[in-house]
Amino acid sequence: MAECSCFSPQLDSGDYDSRDVGETYETNGRSCEASVLTCRQCGSKWLYYRVDYWAYKHSARWYRGLIPETAEHPVVVESAVKILETSECRFEGGPHFDSTGRNGTGRIDVDL
Ligand SMILES: [Zn+2]
What pTM was estimated for this model as a whole? Predict the structure, then answer.
């Protein structure tokens, strides 16, 4: 299963099914969007999380992490950071990281 292409930072949109699990808008101008991606090849479930500050072009970033089996169900946007921080395989990218996709670990900092 670890051989599947979904275990690399770049994922083709044709390789998974996506389901929105919510979005949040905060008073500091931050918006967050989460969806669960199911790989069409191996069935792995990933949490995709996008963070944007509307006033700051280069703040946008995304995270994608394998959803741990111990994660609460159903997955909701409010628990996204916790899930991503406990994920055993995580990627991150976007202008904030100046990256189109790379490996990520540890704490997630969604502040500017
Ligand atoms: Zn896969």
Answer: 0.93
φ, ψ for residue 19 (rounded to 5)?
Answer: -135, 125
CA–centroid distance, 32 to ligand 1, in Å, is 25
- Give me the pLDDT at residue 1, please: 47
Distance 72 CA to ligand 1 centre (A): 21
Cα separation of the two ends of the chain: 35
59 alpha carbon – ligand 1 mean position (Å): 29
Cα-to-centroid distance, 25 and ligand 1 (Å): 31
pLDDT 10s digits, 67-80: 998 888 899 999 99
Q: Under DSSP, is residue 13 helix (H, G, I), strand (E, B) or coil?
A: helix
